[in-house]
Design goal:
687 residues, Helix Hairpins, Glutaredoxin, five-stranded mixed beta sheet, four-stranded mixed beta sheet, 15 strands
């Protein structure tokens, strides 16, 4: 039992050195051989970075040996030798392998192993590797280091492709890269760098712990520089499978941080998209045949025009073609549908579009036929007393016709009527003398509609009557009554040109200096029928009276329009496009990748072994001192000294005993008094 206890104590004492030694052996015997397999130079039996002539000479020797050994049937060894020979005799492939550890067509070895298993080496079909030089010239339009510096100085984000002109793997991505460049046109800089720019390629490559450059996923490799990034330290490397859809989606999401546009089915489009979109927005629906995700310029447009439009994607199916024709008059895909006001015929564009074409389409169709009056559009429409007319700051008077009401079928019907009124007035003869037509041509007349439920304060301000609750505020009854009114805005140039007042001296001056609207307002409410000619005549009469009569100018303060609900995908902001889980996955992946790279550091094994030796030596020295017997002089000293207490309890008792002895007063007999003497003794008691 004592022997077992002694063994356990010894193992426990040397546990740390054993762990370090085991780790060192594991790294040296398992991890390092896997991280640094035999090179192709080792396969041929030549020195590292040997010349092409030395490689050819070594291959000739091995080949003659294989030919003389007619009984050999192991073809896999010959495949490895032949692969090394073809790789190291091609100048471009040899350069890529020597500098960046890039192997050309590495799948060939495994395919040959399965294909020629059990056959003689003479049955192996040569050559093993395809030469990319016979497949065509370099079409990537590579740039130089000077061009790369100019790209980084730009404010736009950039995407860089690193490739090799002699690589078959790179050549087959020629068309893919051209398609990616076309999709990024006008959004980001795109450039290709050939490996002959060795210093630039090494700067953009991954780095091993030893400092050697390599490309983790081989070639071609894609690196992105976000806007404002000027060094490789802030660059982002694409890790997935190279395809147009994958690369553009990664660039738009990770680099540009643009919102994604979701796909909907025929059943979910109405319920999950159209019913949840704000009524003022134009609905833009894309029909796709391939199911590819939205391109970067479409996603950028979704961010740019978020206040005007919402976007959705649909996968085109031939069996649903009749349904989409009846719904939107869509014949085929790809196509784009713009849905504006309720009851308005959709605008359909068939065929693919590029960045500039889609921007033109959005500019033409970003607004509804009858725009909604909101906080974001009041200045643009010229329906804000704090702003100016659509005609510019020089216009002194202008008009805004507003249709107010709660969202309802009655409002939709009246909106259709007002669209027709707007169309007749705006498309009337240019020589027409109708006041409404003249004002519309000069951009002094605007037609718009107002959500009376959301903008209740604004609505009550202009419709002050007993029946205004039928139009403004929350719904109180089944009936909804849309109402029409016109506002005449007039600016007072004399008051605008007055000098700015100093600090007010009295309370009355402070009240006069309150912020009022820049323009005076006069409101006229329409009480007629919904007949289009009557509405046009009413608008013209208001404009005729307003332009011909000298109406009084007075100050007022209009209630501000309430910002309406924004699209949820944009309301989170651009910075939160990536969810927390997605960002965490990227961080975990980066940590695991960095740890994997560190595990291949050849210095870890020797460091662990050195630590094991130091720990073993210190442990042995400490245990030796504890077991060594004391010397004779020490024994004699120890015999004269009192026994030292070992336990804490004994030390505590000894300390208490010493304290009591120090506090005890000295006895009267301990010290002999001065002039003291011993009295003589007598034999008699009487004396």
């Amino acid at each position: 039992m004592a022997m077992v206890s002694s063994t356990l104590t010894r193992v426990k004492a040397y546990a740390l050195p054993l762990i370090l030694f085991t780790g060192a052996m594991f790294f040296q015997l398992i991890v390092i051989p896997q991280s640094f397999p035999r090179s192709h130079y080792d396969v041929l039996g030549v020195r590292m970075y040997a010349s092409v002539e030395e490689v050819e000479e070594a291959y000739e020797k091995l080949s003659s040996k294989w030919k003389s050994d007619t009984d050999s049937s192991n073809s896999f060894d010959f495949v490895k030798v032949r692969y090394a020979y073809e790789l190291l005799t091609n100048p471009i492939w040899k350069r890529n392998y020597d500098i960046f550890e890039i192997e050309e067509q590495p799948h060939v070895i495994e395919e040959a192993k399965q294909r020629f298993a059990g056959k003689r080496f003479s049955d192996v079909q040569l050559p093993l590797l395809d030469d990319a030089s016979v497949q065509g010239e370099d079409n990537f339009n590579a740039i130089t280091a000077e061009d790369f510096q100019l790209i980084l100085q730009s404010d736009k984000p950039s995407m860089v492709l690193i490739y090799s002109s002699g690589s078959v793997c790179c050549t087959q991505y020629d068309g893919t890269w051209k398609r990616i460049v076309s999709l990024l046109d006008g959004i980001a800089n795109a450039a290709a760098i050939e490996l002959r720019e060795v210093q630039l390629a090494a700067y953009l490559a991954d780095k091993r712990p030893t400092g050697r450059s390599f490309f983790r996923n081989g070639l071609p490799s894609v690196v992105a520089f976000p806007s404002g990034c000027k060094t490789v330290g802030c660059s982002i490397r694409f890790e997935g499978q190279l395809s147009v859809d994958a690369v553009t989606d990664w660039f738009a999401t990770i680099v540009l941080r643009l919102p994604r546009i979701l796909y909907y089915s025929k059943e979910s489009l109405a319920q999950k998209f159209m019913a949840k979109i704000s009524p003022h927005k134009v609905k833009v629906i894309f029909f796709s045949k391939t199911g590819e995700r939205a391109t970067p310029f479409i996603r950028l447009a979704a961010l740019k025009y978020w206040d005007h439009a919402s976007f959705a994607f649909l996968l085109w199916r031939e069996e649903d073609s009749s349904f989409w024709w009846n719904a939107f008059e869509v014949e085929s895909a790809p196509s784009i549908v713009f849905l504006k006001d309720p009851g308005v015929k959709p605008v359909v564009h068939h065929g693919p579009v590029n960045n500039s074409q889609f921007t033109d389409l959005m500019e033409q169709n970003k607004n509804q036929e009858l725009p909604q009056l909101r906080a974001e559009t009041s200045n643009e429409l010229g329906c804000d007393a704090r702003g100016y007319s659509r005609a510019g700051a020089d216009t002194l008077s202008w008009y805004c016709v507003v249709l107010a009401g709660r969202l309802s079928p009655e409002l939709n019907s009246m909106r259709a009527t007002m669209r027709r009124v707007q169309e007749i007035i705006s498309h009337d003869n240019e020589d027409s003398s109708v006041p409404a037509t003249v004002a519309s041509k000069r951009k002094r007349l605007t037609f718009t509609w107002l959500n009376g439920e959301t903008q209740k304060k604004y609505c009550f301000f202009y419709l002050q009557s007993e029946t205004s609750y039928e139009t403004c505020g929350p719904r109180r009854d089944i009936s909804d009554v849309p109402r029409l009114f016109i506002v005449r805005y007039t600016r007072n140039l004399t008051e605008e040109n007055e000098p700015v007042r100093r600090k007010p001296k009295t309370m009355w001056d402070a009240l006069n200096d309150q912020e009022y609207d820049r323009a005076s307002q006069l409101v006229a409410r329409y009480n007629g029928s919904n007949e289009i000619p009557q509405i046009i005549e009413w608008v013209s009469s208001i404009i005729r009276d307003g332009d011909s009569r000298d109406l009084p100018f007075f100050k007022t303060k209009t209630p501000e329009l309430v910002p309406e609900d924004m699209d949820p995908i944009i309301s989170r902001g651009v910075g939160s496009v990536l969810s927390k889980s997605t960002g965490l996955k990227h961080k975990i992946y980066g940590f695991v990748r960095g740890l994997h790279d560190r595990l291949g550091d050849p210095r870890i094994g020797p460091v662990l072994l050195l630590g094991a030796l130091i720990s073993f030596g210190s442990t042995w020295l400490r245990r030796s001192r504890e077991k060594s017997p004391p010397s004779q002089s020490n024994q004699s000293n120890q015999s004269n000294e009192p026994t030292q207490p070992k336990s804490k309890e004994e030390i505590r008792k000894l300390r208490r005993r010493r304290e009591r002895n120090e506090e005890r007063p000295s006895s009267i007999t301990d010290v002999e008094p001065k002039n003291a003497y011993q009295a003589p003794l007598s034999d008699s008691d009487s004396n």
